[in-house]
């Protein structure tokens, strides 16, 4: 049991030093996630940085999709004693003002992607509902997450080209999640092999000029709702967030695939008029390719990469058949969101944000 600088702050929650969590579950994690886009199909940047205290690992990644290019820089190191140290090689996250302003950096490196970016929240950070799932007796998900939409400023450099980022057009969202979900090297499946293998998911933080809607839908193989959220949050902090009732998600798939071409998300606020938003993914980014979210045998979140810092670059060209075939799994798309039938609460009826979805395994919405 060893002290760390965090122990000097009066924030202890258990009779442990602060660098140890209160569960011995190997799958405990604590992660930052950010995305950035130009409210267009020009470019999307996704950044993540996570700690895995019971695996002794810390890692980070940045993924940029620009045209046909899918480029990833990733890094991993041993966690060490100081969980306040968020540096992973060229990566770091700095909390400038908690819940409002952060700095996200990927220093110059040999892999053709770097950035120095400042995040400022446009709405107050929101705590999402608990995510708890027990599969075949084992708790697989037990996590919490805060979410926020906001604006970016700074610079991105891609293959030597510098892109100036200004908050008038470079929007995005972020989350901070922590708790239990599968990480690290794969475990023997055991009784989990009996699972249906369904992951039917929508995560849609949509940002309009003066407000945001935060929406989550998760269902099992029979269409039963496992997790949901629908809240409208105003930039004007004097206005209370609005509960929008049970979200109804109706995607339209490209023929013969599970790729979404468009979707309608319906909301029914208690005591208010039902309304709907049309979602259109305009730049799909395959989140699970090269980042650690996927099932690649050499790089997964929390996977031990050895005692020395490891930094890697991975690039794909989606015009190539073999590279395009890799693009599967969770999609984090830039989404265009449009209020339908004049239902926008202000004159700003079109917004942009993350449209994250996955339709894996059996579900009543498809029969393929």
Give the strand content.
over 45%
Structural class of the helices, strands and pairings? mainly beta
Regions with little confidence, pLDDT below 50 for 5+ residues: none
Distance between the termini: 53 Å
Q: Into which percent range does the helicity of residues fall?
A: under 10%
Write the layout of secondary structure elements.
Layout lengths: L27 E10 L6 E9 L4 E10 L2 E10 L12 E7 L3 E6 L6 E9 L4 E2 L3 E5 L2 E21 L2 E5 L5 E10 L18 E9 L3 E9 L5 E10 L7 E2 L4 E6 L6 E8 L7 E9 L26 E8 L3 H4 L6 E9 L10 E11 L8
Antiparallel strand pairs: 1-2, 1-12, 2-3, 3-4, 4-20, 5-6, 6-7, 7-10, 8-10, 9-10, 10-11, 10-12, 13-14, 13-22, 14-15, 15-16, 17-18, 18-19, 19-21, 21-22
Describe this structure in words.
The protein is mainly beta and 368 residues long. It has a single domain (25-360), classed as AttH-like domain (AttH-like fold, Beta Barrel). The protein contains one helix and 22 strands. It has one helix at residues 321-324; strands at 28-37, 44-52, 57-66, 69-78, 91-97, 101-106, 113-121, 126-127, 131-135, 138-158, 161-165, 171-180, 199-207, 211-219, 225-234, 242-243, 248-253, 260-267, 275-283, 310-317, 331-339, 350-360. The strands form two sheets. Strands 1, 2, 3, 4, 5, 6, 7, 8, 9, 10, 11, 12 and 20 form a 13-stranded antiparallel beta sheet that branches. The protein has a nine-stranded antiparallel beta sheet with strand order 16-15-14-13-22-21-19-18-17, with no helix packed on it. A hairpin with a 3-residue loop joins strand 13 and strand 14 (211-219). The protein is globular, with a radius of gyration of 20 Å. The termini are far apart.
């Amino acid at each position: 049991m060893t002290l760390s600088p965090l122990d000097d702050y009066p924030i202890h929650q258990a009779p442990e030093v602060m660098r140890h969590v209160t569960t011995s579950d190997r799958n405990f994690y604590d992660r930052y996630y950010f995305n950035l886009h130009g409210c267009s199909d020009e470019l999307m940047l996704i950044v993540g940085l996570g700690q895995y205290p019971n695996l002794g690992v810390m890692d980070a990644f940045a993924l940029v999709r620009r045209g046909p290019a899918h480029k990833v820089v990733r890094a991993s190191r041993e966690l060490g004693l100081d969980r306040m140290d968020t540096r992973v090689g060229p990566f770091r996250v700095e909390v400038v003002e908690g819940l409002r302003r952060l700095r996200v950096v990927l220093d110059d490196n040999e892999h053709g992607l770097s950035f120095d970016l400042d995040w400022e929240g446009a709405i107050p950070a929101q705590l999402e509902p608990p995510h708890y799932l027990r599969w075949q007796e084992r708790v697989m998900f037990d996590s919490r997450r805060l979410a926020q939409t906001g604006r970016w400023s700074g610079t991105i450099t891609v293959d030597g080209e510098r892109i100036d980022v200004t908050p008038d057009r470079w929007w995005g969202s972020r989350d901070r999640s922590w708790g239990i979900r599968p990480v690290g090297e794969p475990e023997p499946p055991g009784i989990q092999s009996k699972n249906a293998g369904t992951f039917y998911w929508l995560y849609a933080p949509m940002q309009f000029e003066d407000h945001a809607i935060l929406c989550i839908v998760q269902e099992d193989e029979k269409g039963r709702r496992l997790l949901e959220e629908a809240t409208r949050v105003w930039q004007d902090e004097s206005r209370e967030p609005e509960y929008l009732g049970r979200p109804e998600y109706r995607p339209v798939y490209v023929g013969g695939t599970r790729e979404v071409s468009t979707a309608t998300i319906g909301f029914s606020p208690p005591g208010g008029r039902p309304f709907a938003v049309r979602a259109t993914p305009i730049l799909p980014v395959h989140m699970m390719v090269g980042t650690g979210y996927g099932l690649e045998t050499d790089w997964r979140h929390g996977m031990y990469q050895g005692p020395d810092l490891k930094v890697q670059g991975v690039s794909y060209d989606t015009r190539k058949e073999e590279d395009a075939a890799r693009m599967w799994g969770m999609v984090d798309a830039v989404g265009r969101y449009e209020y339908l039938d004049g239902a926008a609460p202000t004159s700003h009826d079109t917004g942009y944000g993350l449209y994250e979805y996955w339709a894996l395994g059996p579900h009543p919405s498809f029969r393929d």
